[in-house]
């Protein structure tokens, strides 16, 4: 009797699996609207491009444990959940356990990997992962030749934005690993000025500023229209100082500046020019009146509320303030203006961009299924979901960007130099956080003038690096 029941149950399960798999071979059209993209996984199963999964996908089994850097309340988690549902429909023999850790993942993942806890796939900033977790990540080069999910026969490698793939590959050499790809890029970002188009129109500004002179003119027009031109808060103030200096001299020069043990570079004419320009922005009232005390997310909320016009921030900004800004907010973006008297190593040829990444634990006991799941997470439909539901930059080629990031896409496409996070202003580590940024804030709030800034930074550098 037990044997008969077991056979019956097995037949039912097989029939159910056949029905699910059959449902995946229908309409291959991708979700093109919020309504389509936000449907549940079972409703969208017929639109899943699972027919393009690797030939052995349906034979995969076992368990895959995936740790995500998103919390289960963020829109990214919904897209991930939908992608996992589609993966499971195409691979019914695989059990997927997902843990939405939020940003706590960055604290938890290293101890987990070092203790041997089962984590097959995890999200992490690729640069940070290769610096801190390089003994735990698998080189993916051979796996990247597999067909991508939903990308018209492209390989996984060719389905993802070349700029991001090149960036990921370059990180391996920096980390001292064998050159190659150790992460699949996702959730790309770029750092630009984000602005309120309605306020620009109110001030009569008809085009975004490209030069510093045009930037100052825009600030003056905004001020006359009763709008505070510029804001930032403590989370991203490093971007502003790094953006100016790198636009003038390039990020390599900025790195040399903040790591100069003699302090002599702080007497460079460009530093004084920078300081005078910051002093002028303060004296002319172009900085927000609350900029000195802004704690994250105060500055970006001021932009969303229309109190301030511009914030030099990342492409995640429209999503982070979407609840405050509302659906009708008109976002625009532009690169940091070209600074005069530079060395031709900066300008708008450079852009600070990168991506979060999905990585595979090299000690995973189920690498084939784990990588197949990764393919779904960076597949065409999932990345379209990220663009629609999370207002994020999609990592796949030929995928439309959110309208709020349309101008960022232009900057992304034309950039030829990838500048690091903060444009290297943070390369001084404790010196950057303990001296460079605090003294910068003294300057922009009028506590010291340009000449005092130069003298103080030279002194601070000598004091910090003395004897090192």
Automatic annotation (TrEMBL):
The answer to whether the entry has keyword Signal is yes
NADP as a keyword of this entry, yes or no, is no
Residues annotated as signal peptide: 1-22
List where Polar residues composition bias occurs: 29-55
InterPro entries assigned: Bact_solute-bd_prot1, SBP
Fetch the PANTHER family from UniProt. ARABINOSE-BINDING PROTEIN-RELATED (PTHR43649), DIACETYLCHITOBIOSE BINDING PROTEIN DASA (PTHR43649:SF12)
Protein name in the entry = Extracellular solute-binding protein
In its UniProt entry, the species of origin is given as Cohnella ginsengisoli
């Amino acid at each position: 009797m037990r044997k008969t029941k077991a056979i019956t149950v097995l037949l039912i399960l097989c029939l159910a699996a056949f029905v699910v798999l059959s449902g995946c071979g229908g309409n291959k059209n991708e979700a093109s609207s919020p309504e389509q993209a936000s449907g549940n996984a079972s409703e969208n199963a017929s639109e899943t491009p699972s027919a393009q999964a690797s030939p052995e996908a349906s034979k995969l089994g076992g368990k895959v444990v995936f740790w995500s850097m998103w919390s289960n309340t963020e829109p990214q988690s919904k897209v991930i959940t939908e992608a996992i549902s589609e993966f499971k429909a195409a691979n019914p023999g695989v059990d997927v356990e997902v843990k939405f850790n939020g940003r706590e993942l960055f604290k938890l993942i290293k101890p987990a990997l070092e203790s041997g806890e089962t984590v097959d796939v995890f999200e992490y900033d690729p640069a940070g992962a290769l610096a801190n977790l390089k003994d735990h990540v698998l080189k993916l080069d051979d796996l990247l030749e597999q067909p991508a999910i939903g990308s018209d026969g492209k390989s996984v490698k060719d389905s993802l934005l070349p700029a991001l793939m090149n960036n990921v590959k370059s990180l391996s050499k920096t980390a001292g690993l064998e050159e190659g790809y150790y992460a699949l890029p996702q959730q790309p970002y770029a750092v630009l000025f984000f602005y309120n188009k309605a306020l620009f129109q109110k001030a009569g500004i008809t085009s975004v500023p490209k030069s510093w002179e045009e930037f100052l003119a825009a600030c003056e027009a905004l001020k006359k229209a009763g709008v505070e031109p510029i804001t930032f808060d403590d989370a991203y103030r490093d971007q502003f100082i790094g953006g100016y200096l790198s636009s003038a001299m390039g990020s390599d020069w900025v790195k040399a500046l903040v790591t100069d043990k003699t302090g002599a570079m702080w007497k460079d004419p460009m530093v004084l020019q920078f300081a005078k320009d910051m002093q002028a922005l303060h004296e002319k009232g172009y900085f927000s009146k609350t900029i000195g005390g802004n704690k994250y997310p105060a500055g970006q909320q001021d932009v969303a509320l229309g109190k301030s016009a511009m914030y030099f921030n990342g492409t995640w900004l429209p999503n982070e303030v979407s609840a405050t800004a509302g659906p009708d907010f008109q976002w625009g973006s532009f690169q940091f203006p070209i600074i005069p008297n530079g060395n031709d190593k900066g300008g708008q040829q450079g852009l600070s961009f990168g991506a979060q990444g999905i990585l595979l634990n090299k000690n995973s006991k189920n690498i084939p299924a784990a990588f197949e799941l990764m393919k779904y997470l960076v597949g065409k439909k999932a990345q379209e979901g990220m663009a629609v539901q999370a207002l994020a930059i999609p990592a796949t080629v030929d995928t439309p960007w959110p309208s709020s990031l349309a101008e960022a896409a232009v900057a992304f496409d034309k950039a030829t130099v990838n500048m690091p996070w903060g444009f290297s202003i943070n390369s001084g580590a404790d010196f950057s956080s303990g001296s460079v940024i605090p003294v910068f804030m003294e300057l922009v709030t009028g506590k010291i003038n340009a000449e005092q800034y130069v003298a103080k930074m030279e002194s601070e550098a000598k004091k910090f690096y003395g004897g090192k």
